[in-house]
Amino acid sequence: MNLLHKNVAFIGAGNMSRAIILGMIKQGYPADRITASNPSRPKLDALEQDAGINTTSDNLQAVNDADVVVLAVKPQLMQEVCKHLQQTDLQGKLFVSIAAGINANRLQQMLGGNYPVVRTMPNTPSSLGLGMTGLFADAGVNDEQREFAAFLLSQVGKTLWVSEEAKIDGVIAAAGSSPAYFFLFAEAMQAEAERMGFDHDEARLLVQQAMLGAATMVVENPATEISTLREQVTSKGGTTAQALATFENAGLRDTISQAMQAAVKRAQEMSTLF
Ligand SMILES: NC(=O)C1=CN([C@@H]2O[C@H](COP(=O)(O)OP(=O)(O)OC[C@H]3O[C@@H](n4cnc5c(N)ncnc54)[C@H](O)[C@@H]3O)[C@@H](O)[C@H]2O)C=CC1
Ligand SMILES: O=C(O)[C@@H]1CCC=N1
Fold first, then answer.
1. Confidence check: pLDDT of 1 > 80
2. What is the pTM (predicted TM-score) of this model?
3. Do 69 and 63 form a contact (C-beta atoms < 8 A)?
4. Which of 63, 163, 176, 251 could bond to 121 as cystine, CB 3.0-4.6 Å?
5. CATH superfamily, region 3-163
């Protein structure tokens, strides 16, 4: 089957589905090949209007004609949603899950069969086409299905295959959850700039432009280690050295390590809960 001609059903039309669907449309994917399902209408109406795709409030209807089913509900709803899908014939369909903390075996249990499953972990910058998604393919996934899953997520950013499922938890810690770490850092910096006398908008401008510039320097200098970029800012005996020493003395590196481990631990716990 042609890569472009698979019918894709999104179960759950929330933030992540919307981002992926809009990315697909922008890249020229045929809208009539995409269906989104959600219990309430407002998000579906917005998608119909903005993307011209098919919508329904009936998950079974969405799945019936689909070659690929994207499972995009909250982890705690996944079991109920998958159990209901068992009422239709699921043979021959590829399942792509974006849920955190539900492993491929568990999804197959929930679906009631050994169907091919690709687990993915995207992040919210996907809504701008700047996403980072990790993917893991279960043994039953064939090459064409792998290619299609990667194609789907590449519509909203970069992709990285992992060969062991446990590494998806590492993707969560490093890329799925991590936009929130950067937001926390920026929030704290903006608050301190405001305490220094800048108004809200001035403080935000200072912080956001520095963050954008720093991120762009990292991206545009792939041959330069990030530590070197840091050193290039740090004049001997200057201001940056004092700020960085404050971070180091407060154990910032260790805190970051602990925070990432806490995200992994929570993903592992979630895999036993749902
Ligand atoms: N927000 C994030 O940064 C990331 C989220 N994820 C995962 O993506 C999944 C979805 O997250 P979001 O899009 O952020 O959540 P969301 O809450 O925006 O979207 C979930 C959608 O599912 C719908 N829904 C509820 N019950 C349903 C049912 N029975 N059938 C069909 N749809 C139903 C809800 O109405 C909602 O529109 C979650 O499993 C989450 O773990 C993954 C990576 C990053
Ligand atoms: O916080 C969460 O559980 C989800 C997964 C990664 C980002 N948001």
1. no
2. 0.93
3. yes
4. 176
5. NAD(P)-binding Rossmann-like Domain (3.40.50.720)
